[in-house]
Amino acid sequence: MLLRNLLWMVQHYPEWDGFFLERSRSLMSVLWGDNNTYDRMKIEWLRHADGVNPTPIVLFNAANFFAVHEPELAEKLFLRVITAEPDEHLYPFRLGQLYGDALDHTRAREQDQVERLAVKVESILNGSPDQWVVAGIRESLRYSY
Question: Which residue, 12, 21, 54, 115, could crosslink 58 as a Cys pair with Cβ 3.0–4.6 Å?
Fold first, then answer.
């Protein structure tokens, strides 16, 4: 029942701020073990993200959905939302959490994506990274799950 309701919310209210829950990172984490529901939700999130002028919150919600299993796609969506709203600190902070998860090698459907992202993060950290991205990385590593 919960998964059916979540799918309906994604289809009809992708801008709902309840998809992202601090600490648990994403309400979508309940989908980890259900491939069929994950695939159906993925189709809906991509439809919204690739639609005409998606709002920043829709891009953010979509990025959070993909953060667990498809971190490279999540990174692209986070970068899009950061470009759309560069003054919002939550977006680079959450990108940093994604990077921290990659450094911690959090389990994902696509483990090779996590490993590629971890290499990229190490390169970013050796440069001059955004302070909010670094804060997100620290937070992620502090609360590894």
Answer: 54
Full set of structural domains in the chain with CATH: 2-142 (1.25.40)
Statement: residue 144 has pLDDT above 60: no
Q: 38: Cβ–Cβ under 8 A, 6 or more apart, which residues? A: 31, 32, 69
Q: What is the dihedral of CA 53, 59, 62, 64, to 10 degrees?
A: 180
| Cα–Cα distance for residue pair 111/71, rounded to 1 Å | 9
Q: Cα–Cα distance between 137 and 95 in angstroms, integer? A: 8
Phi, psi (rounded to 5 degrees) for 48: -70, -45
Cβ contacts of 133 within 8 Å, gap of 6 or more:
92, 93, 95, 96, 99, 124
Q: What is the DSSP code (8-state) at residue 144?
A: -
Q: What is the pLDDT of residues 38-49, one digit of tens each?
A: 888 899 999 999
For 33, list phi and psi in degrees, rounded to 5. Answer: -95, 0
For 87, the 3-state DSSP assignment is coil
Q: What is the pLDDT of residue 48?
A: 96
Residue 108, pLDDT score: 54
